[in-house]
Prior knowledge:
mainly alpha, 57% helix, 12 helices, 6 strands, two-stranded parallel sheet, 194 residues, Rossmann fold, DNA polymerase, domain 1, single chain
Amino acid sequence: MVLYFDHDLACRQMAAVSNLSTEQVRDFVFASGLERQYELGMIDDREFYERFCALAGVRPDMAALLRAGSDIFRLNVPVMSVVAALDSAGYRLGLLSNTCPAHWAYCGQGRFGLIKRAFSIYALSFQLGALKPDAKIYLAAAKLAGAGPEEIFFVDDIAEHVTGACAAGFDAVQFTTVPQLVADLRARGLAFNY
Length: 194
C-alpha cells in the first residue's frame, strides 16, 4: 500500500538480463516457490541467485539480476502524504511487509529512503520467517512494536491480510482510498494535519 509493485515487470526485466522468456522466469521464480522461500528468509540473496541459475541453466550477473527483480516499485504518493502527516503529528508508525532481502535493500535502504525516515518499526517477512496472513507475522510485529495486538491499527490493501490481522487481534481495515483511510484514522481518534 505504501509502494506499488509489479511482479510482471520483475519477470520481464529478469528475463532481459538472463536471456530467458518472461514465462520461464515466472515459472522459475514464482511457480517453483523460490520467491516464497526468499520472502520467508529461508534463503539469502546468494542462494536465491544460485537456485535461480540452477533452475534456468544460465548465470547472468548477480547484481543485475537482483536489480532487475527489485526495480519494480513506485511510491504511492497520496498514502505517503498521510504517513508524513501522521509522522509529523508524532504517531509511532510501523511497516509490516512480505518482502525479500533484495527488495528491502532496494526500497528501504536505497531508492525510497523516505520509508526509513517515516517508520520506526520494520516487521519484514524474511527476518521474521512468516508471511502475511500467517498469525505468526502479526504477533512478531506486535512484539517488535512492544505492544499488544489489540493496540495496533493495521491497514493493508489485500483483504486476506486484513482478515489475518484481525484474527491475530489487530484492529485492521482494508485500504481502498486515501479519504477512507483518513476517515478510518480519525474514527480512531487520531488527530493530524491532512
